[in-house]
Design a protein that fits this description.
Layout: E1 6-19, E2 22-35, E3 39-43, H1 50-57, E4 65-70, E5 73-74, H2 80-90, E6 91-95, H3 106-116, H4 121-134, H5 150-161, E7 168-172, H6 180-197, E8 200-204, E9 216-221, E10 224-230, H7 231-241
Parallel strand pairs: 3-8, 3-9, 6-7, 7-8
Antiparallel strand pairs: 1-2, 1-4, 4-5, 9-10
Helix pairs in contact: 3-4, 3-5, 4-5, 5-6
The chain binds adenosine-5'-diphosphate and magnesium ion.
Length: about 240
């Protein structure tokens, strides 16, 4: 045991979407164990099931069959309030479209989850500023999303995801709406969180720039795990050869 445990474990996860007579088998039996502290990327072509898998891992949607364990707790056994607690405290979510509240300032967006979690005013004011500083946006704390660039909005979303010190950051196409250079900045920021804070990062993406920062890459094809690539092993092998 190297001190890590499975933060998320999926067992035979199947997801079928039914729309009238149509049936889409988006996930066809996924088995996956995600280790604490790793940077895991889920890659695959459009429509391969990345977002569906993302929603299973983050307990945002229920599998048609199979089990999802977060910290070895079967999430299907949780009631609505326990699930809300999990989503607010244990996991920080980042989406392609940022999903910030448009009428609220950067500071308000970041502190809202802290207020939900019952943090005192002094605490959330200090922590909000600290997180905006971390993502390089301290001077813009009073700006609302429409007054910020895409990259800046995604930085706010990352700060918000960190509000309650989650063990897991889940990011679905975090660079999908950003230009290349800005996307790279966001990837660098996620990597820093992983390296410096030990946060488990799970990112569904088709941005190949994510490959270089990932410890493992799960390649999804047609709702199935095609292969799992261990980038750490790759780095070690390359290092030994050179
Ligand atoms: P990706 O994120 O890799 O592009 P998705 O997980 O979004 O893929 O989609 C996988 C498959 O499931 C696609 O065929 C998509 O059309 C279908 N799908 C996803 N979400 C829904 C939904 N809510 N209702 C019906 N079909 C869906
Ligand atoms: Mg997607």
């Amino acid at each position: 045991d190297n001190g890590t445990h499975n933060v998320v474990r999926l067992v035979d996860v199947v997801k079928v979407f039914r729309m009238g007579q149509q049936e889409v088998r988006a996930l066809k039996g996924i088995n996956l164990a995600i280790r604490s502290g790793e940077y895991l990327s889920i890659m695959g072509p459009s429509g391969s099931g990345k977002s569906t898998l993302f929603n299973m891992i983050g307990a945002l949607d229920k599998p048609t069959s199979g089990r999802v364990f977060i910290d070895e707790v079967d999430v299907s056994q949780l009631d609505a309030y326990e699930l809300a607690w999990l989503r607010c405290r244990k996991i920080g979510y980042i989406f392609q479209t940022f999903n910030l509240i448009q009428v609220m300032t950067a500071m308000e967006n970041v502190t809202l989850p802290m207020i939900f979690a019952g943090m005192s005013r002094d605490e959330y004011v200090e922590k909000g500023m600290e997180l905006l500083q971390l993502v390089g946006l301290a001077e813009r704390y009073q700006h609302k999303p429409p007054e910020l660039s895409g990259g800046q909005q995604q930085r706010v979303a990352i700060a918000r995801a960190l509000a309650n010190d989650p063990a897991i950051i889940l990011a679905d196409e975090p660079t999908g709406n950003l230009d290349l250079a800005t996307g790279e900045e966001i990837i660098g920021l996620l990597k820093r969180l992983s390296a410096e804070r030990g946060v488990t990062i799970i990112s569904a993406t088709h941005d190949i720039k994510m490959l270089n920062v990932s410890d493992r890459v799960v390649w999804i094809r047609d709702g199935m795990v095609d292969r799992i690539e261990d980038r750490e092993e790759l780095k070690i092998t390359v290092g030994e050869v050179g």
